[in-house]
Structure formats: structure tokens, C-alpha cells
Amino acid sequence: MKLHTSQMSDSFRIAAMLAVVGGFLDAYSYLVRGQVFANAQTGNIVLMGIQLAEGHFSKAFTYFIPIFAFFIGVIVDEIIRKKCNHHLSLHWRQVVLLIEMSILLIVMLLPHGKGDFIANALVSFICSLQVQSFRKVHGLPYATTMCTGNLRSGTEHFVRYMETKDKNRRKNFLFYYGIIACFVAGAGIGAVFIRYWSSPSLMFCFVLLGICFLMLFIQAGEEKKV
């Protein structure tokens, strides 16, 4: 599979920054907002099942909320893609990024403890918008808010490369492992920043999303056709 540059939203640079944001937000929701995974809904589903089995229904509900928010985010993303693509000067993915940035500002203002319930729902909503909007780089499907699929795909391409020595396979597995590395870096940066600045550290994600927003003006004409 040959990698080529076609749209800015398909670039590794944007994918890498969004993966950093994804890792950061997962660290934030876990460390600051009651040990809930904003991105990895599989983890929340497992924890919800455990709480239900133990009869802790109110605790199970705290895990259900981010799952439901993720569900709503995917629906909203599809509506934005269909409604905004031909009616705004901005690309629909830029609209998604603006929504993400606006919600981050709200999350930063929510109090710890009492506000965790809402904060986790909003962060999960952000992550669902992101993972639904940015799904491919040069034809390779990937995710910026979770790593399981990336790890599977990267390892598959690694095995194929070891068998065939195909340079494109090498590019592909390096891409996937690179995205995973960016996610890990985001989680690590988040852990450090959160230790010193707590919720205001989300400004780091706000800035990265802003850079992605500006980068999408490049080749915007081509993107409007996607």
C-alpha cells in the first residue's frame, strides 16, 4: 500500500497531535475525574458490568454516562458531517475541532468532585467526535483516542513486512506504532501537567486542537469535496 499525501486531515502530523490529545484526555479523566476512562469505552463497559454484578447500581451509572456520551458524540458527528459540509466556509472537521475546544473550556471550569459526572461525559463526547472525524491517514484506518486497533494493525503490517520486506508495509507499521507512541506521550505529558496544574492543564490540548484547526485551512478546497 503506497502512502501519499492528499488531504491535510489525512496527514501524520495532525494524526500525531490528535493522538497526543487522546492520551492526555484519558490520563486527565482517570487521574482528576474519578478514575473513569474517557476514551476507552471497553474499560468503562467492563467496570460497569462489575459494579452491576456487585449491586452497586449508582456506581455503575457513573460508568454508563461516559458510554452514553460517546454514543451521542458519534451521532452528532454524523449530523455535522452531513449538514455542515456544504453550507459553511469551514470544513466540517474544523467545526468538530471548534466544538472540542469549546467543550474543553467548559470542562476546565467544572469543580472537582461534584463536577466529575458532567466532566467525564463531556470528555467522552469530545473523544467520540474526534475518533469519528479523523479515521484514516493515507487510506490506513486508525484511532487517536484508543490503541487496541492500532496495535493490532501495526503488528499485522510488521508481520507482513518480515515476510515480504515490502517497504510500504514497513511505513505502515511504523505509522501505527508512531501513533501509539504519541498516545503514550500524551498520557505521560498529561500525568506531569495534571500534577502541577490540574484542570487548567487542559489548555495544552486546547492549543494542539487549535493548531490542527489552523492546519486544516491547508488544502481546504480539496477537503470540502470529501
List keywords for this structure.
single chain; 226 residues; mainly alpha; 9 helices
Across the major sheet, the strand order is: 1-2
H-E string:
HHHHHEEHHHH
Stretches where pLDDT is under 50 for at least 5 consecutive residues are 1-5, 221-226
Number of helices: 9
Your description of this structure?
The protein has 226 residues and is mostly helical. Helix content is 72%, strand content 2%. The protein is built from nine helices and two strands. The chain has helices at residues 12-32, 41-53, 57-84, 92-109, 116-133, 148-164, 167-197, 203-215, 220-223, and strands spanning 136-137, 140-141. A two-stranded antiparallel sheet has the order 1-2. The longest helix has 31 residues, at 167-197. The model is unreliable at 1-5 and 221-226 (pLDDT under 50).
List the helices and strands and how they pair.
Elements lengths: L11 H21 L8 H13 L3 H28 L7 H18 L6 H18 L2 E2 L2 E2 L6 H17 L2 H31 L5 H13 L4 H4 L3
Antiparallel strand pairs: 1-2
Helix pairs in contact: 1-5, 1-7, 1-8, 2-3, 3-4, 3-5, 4-5, 4-8, 6-7
In a nutshell, what does this entry contain?
This protein is mainly α and 226 residues long. It is 72% helix and 2% strand.
